[in-house]
Amino acid sequence: MHRVIISGIGAEIPEPVITNEELVASFNSWVDTENARRADTGEPLLQKSDSDFIVHASGVKSRHVIERDGILDPTRMSPRIPARPDDALSLEAEFGIASAKKALAHAGVDGSDIDLVICSASHHQRPYPAIAIEMQEALGTKGAGFDMGLGCSSAAAALHVAVNLVRAGAHKRILVSTPEIITGHLNFRDRQTHFIFGDASVAMVVEGLAQGEKRPGRFEVLDTRTWTQMSNNIRTNLGYHTRTGQDDPYMINLEGNLIKQVGNKVFKEVTVAGQKFIVEFLAEHGLTPEGIRRFWLHQANARMNAMILKLSFGHDVDHDRAPMVLERLGNTAGAGAIVALSENHADMKAGDFGLICAFGAGYSIGGALLRML
Amino acid sequence: MHRVIISGIGAEIPEPVITNEELVASFNSWVDTENARRADTGEPLLQKSDSDFIVHASGVKSRHVIERDGILDPTRMSPRIPARPDDALSLEAEFGIASAKKALAHAGVDGSDIDLVICSASHHQRPYPAIAIEMQEALGTKGAGFDMGLGCSSAAAALHVAVNLVRAGAHKRILVSTPEIITGHLNFRDRQTHFIFGDASVAMVVEGLAQGEKRPGRFEVLDTRTWTQMSNNIRTNLGYHTRTGQDDPYMINLEGNLIKQVGNKVFKEVTVAGQKFIVEFLAEHGLTPEGIRRFWLHQANARMNAMILKLSFGHDVDHDRAPMVLERLGNTAGAGAIVALSENHADMKAGDFGLICAFGAGYSIGGALLRML
After folding, report:
1. What is the Cα–Cα distance from B197 to B300, expressed in whole angstroms?
2. What is the distance between the alpha carbons of residues B166 and B163, in angstroms, rounded to a whole number?
3. C or N: which end of chain A has fewer Cβ atoms within 10 Å?
4. Could you give the CA distance from residue A229 to residue A362 in angstroms, rounded to a whole number?
5. Cα gap A175→A155, rounded to integer Å
6. pLDDT on residue A245
7. pLDDT at B84 over 90
8. Which residues contact B167 (CB under 8 A, 6 or more apart)?
9. Burial classification of residue A349, based on how many CB atoms lie within 10 Å of its CB (0-12 exposed, 13-18 middle, 19 or more buried)
10. Confidence band (pLDDT; 50, 70, 90) for B59?
11. In this prediction, does ipTM exceed 0.90?
12. Going from the N-terminus, what domains does chain B have, and what CATH number goes with each?
């Protein structure tokens, strides 16, 4: 049974930024137009938004997106990204590769040293060929690839799979990639969710530690865990079968089929479940939250993370202990906790413990207990 | 490191049948209407189909489908399956559960004995909550669930993951489920692919073998392997990002976004790759094809399987050695090889070797070397 390390970590943040103010201006302009229409039909009028509400509700002040064009246009409210021909690299694979190259460089290995690519994300661009296989070809990796998904726990669940595949000796070195292009599926006309998300891609190289091998500055993965429990409070309904219920089965109306969220229920239920997960997972290793140098939590909501930590520790915890990237990036789904890890581990010392804990749609929670070598 | 067995196997075949003759009558009726329209516009006319062409091209004589209504209606050509409310069990989970219950009964365990559900299929009904989590709730399983996919190798790839998760001690008993509702995404107006597929759901229980434990009649999994290589010759393009390239990003036209296949290239390339995979995989275990009592191959095309076996053995191989369920069921994607396994293993003796080998979109190939206990 092999000891397993994360030998490389990479995060790719797209350059374009959208501030709350820009998003609110676009949203409110659309509401004006929509309400003028509704005034004629007698439908209930929509409420405008403002930046203070967004910051209070989520903590998000800006988000990075793959493509600004189209999102802020009140007549479109979706990124405008031309379709590519089948023989061109897909956007999701391209985004995954950008973070993968950084993770490979960090690990000091080439693509050809990888023997499995797992592409795990909240949404995939298509079912097949798997995005992981496109990445495999572009990176020159060996072996195989497959796609998986578990909402915002996608990277954590893939890490659980990868660590155990290496532990069992099935693969030598695995690339876990989580390219999250959330703006592609976001309903920018929904006041409750349009401001939450941003795009980001992360990757990790997972490999075995040879007998006597020293890898200072890298994390050993002591344990991983996943937990899920059914909830419709974060849900999306688009799939192939959506067509079978429609009058015209060759057309899919996305109205009602994009992400929807019952925010207050998610906040309460996932906060309680997350705290329980953290405390129990650590206790099984003879640890308490105080013994963990750093927490890389899912980046969905600033108040939610503060509450999970307060319940776990019994007191407030600062951002040195649990860094946040949410304010700048928004919720980047499965990528969030790994972006926080990527940006906040260089100061850790040998022997320091760290905990990745991602949570979200499903409900799902995924954790990994790390110790710096 | 644990020895791993498949302790339960279950297959669910929906009752409704569609014969080649029925499918051809519907298709040709649509072609008549379409060609009348095309005659007016000057577009090239479409070719009609016939049952002999279907049998020659694929070996398929009938297929079972979840819902006949709508498929044979030349004005619709898609199953008519009303959308369910979010709080109702989804069709994919329901279909997965039907086979899962058979696999649990075969293994002699309850849902509560399972600590991970993997739902691995060519297509999923939605990204989140994961279908595996719905199954988890309905079956009363513990731990967690996640969804993954790798085209027609979906069950084989999930078996690879499950076997190694158990081997590494991360889970005790895993349910691998592959509910394939292919008729939901099939373009019944495409002469090249409309006749190939049918619906089926399969499940396997994967668990460790305790020291000294005897499980006669069950298969030990000696090894598993996955292989992938990029190809667009089997491809589908529907995903959330499809909308970002469209004029109206709140509507997705499925024209061009359903499964398409370059049949002759797939036949040639996957036949060669499949034969190579089989011979090399067996050789690494000191085995030749002659030493394998039974092959459960992917059920896509009767001539393709015959060719793979002929290249592997150096001579023709009969259906006792490599049973086919394709004639009756069509290509049931990831489920096919496991349906063949489910229906064709009771006569095997202790010590007999068997090989699961699935192949398809990606390209992807997944194999599992079994020996009956």
Report:
1. 8
2. 5
3. N
4. 6
5. 11
6. 87
7. yes
8. A168, A170, B1, B2, B4, B208
9. exposed
10. very high
11. yes
12. 222-372 (3.40.47.10)
Nearest residue on chain B to A251, judged by CA atoms? B253
- As annotated, the active-site residues of B are 152
What are the structure tokens assigned to A221, written together?
């993965």
User: For residues A62 and A254, what is the distance between their CA atoms, to the nearest angstrom?
Assistant: 26
Structure tokens at B173: 């008993």
Cβ–Cβ gap B149/A148 under 8 Å = yes
**Residues B269, B363: contact at Cβ < 8 Å?**
yes
Q: What confidence tier does B147 reach under pLDDT thresholds 50, 70, 90?
A: very high
User: Widest CA span of chain A, in angstroms?
Assistant: 76
How is residue B118 written in tokens?
């993997």
Instruction: Write the residue in B239, B250, B253 that is nearest to A125 by C-beta.
Output: B239
Question: Residues, chain A, total?
Answer: 373
pLDDT band, very low/low/confident/very high, at B256 (cuts 50, 70, 90): confident
Q: Please, which residues have CB within 8 angstroms of residue B82's CB and are 6 or more apart in sequence?
A: A245
DSSP code for B357: E
Token look-up 């005897």 returns B214
Closest to A123 in 3D by CA, of A84, A180, A77, A199: A180
pLDDT at B211: 87
B168 chain-A contacts, CB cut-off 8 A: 1, 164-165, 167-168
Structure tokens at A355: 């905990």
Looking at residue A191, what is its pLDDT? 92
Q: Report the residue from B132, B227, B250 with minimal CB separation from A144.
A: B227
| Confidence at residue B2, expressed as pLDDT on a 0 to 100 scale | 87
Reference B148, options B116, B123, B115; nearest CA is: B123
Cis amide leading into A79 (omega within 30): no
- CA A250 vs CA A83, A244, A323, A324, B181: distances in Å: 19, 9, 46, 43, 17
Mean pLDDT calculated for residue range B207-223: 94
Kind of pairing between the strands at B200-209 and B173-180: antiparallel
Which chain B residues touch A87 with a CB distance below 8 Å? 232
DSSP assignment of B68-130 equals -TTTT-TTT-S---PPPPTTSPPHHHHHHHHHHHHHHHHHT--GGG--EEEEE-SS-S-SSS-
Among candidates A345, A356, A277, which has minimal Cα distance to A312? A277
User: How many residues are given for chain B?
Assistant: 373
What is the tens place of the pLDDT at every residue in B324-359?
Answer: 999 999 999 999 999 999 999 999 999 999 999 999
The percent of residues in chain B predicted with pLDDT above 70, rounded, is 100
Can you name the residues that pair with B43 across neighbouring β-strands? none
Q: How many angstroms separate the CA atoms of A113 and A115, rounded?
A: 7
- H or E stretch including B221? strand B219-228
CB-based burial of residue A126 (10 Å sphere; 0-12 exposed, 13-18 middle, 19+ buried)?
A: buried
CA–CA separation, A312 and A289 (whole Å): 7
Q: Split chain A (373 residues) into runs of 10 and give each run's mean pLDDT.
A: 94 98 96 94 94 94 96 95 95 98 98 98 96 98 97 98 97 98 93 95 97 93 98 93 88 89 95 98 98 97 96 96 97 98 97 98 97 97
Task: Please name the member of B133, B230, B254 whose beta carbon is closest to the beta carbon of A243.
Answer: B254
A144:B231 CB<8 A: no
Does residue B1 have a pLDDT over 80?
no
User: Which DSSP helix (H) or strand (E) runs through B41?
Assistant: helix B20-41
Please give, rounded to a whole number of angstroms, the shortest distance from the CA of B367 to a CA of chain A.
12
> Would you put residue A70 in left (φ > 0), alpha (ψ -120 to 50) or beta?
left
Task: Report CA torsion sign: A149, B241, A237, A235.
Answer: positive
Q: Is A181 on the interface with B (CB under 8 A)?
A: yes
Query: What confidence score (pLDDT) does residue B231 get?
Result: 97
Q: Which two tokens stand for residue B165?
A: 């998760």
> Given this model, what pLDDT does residue B149 score?
96
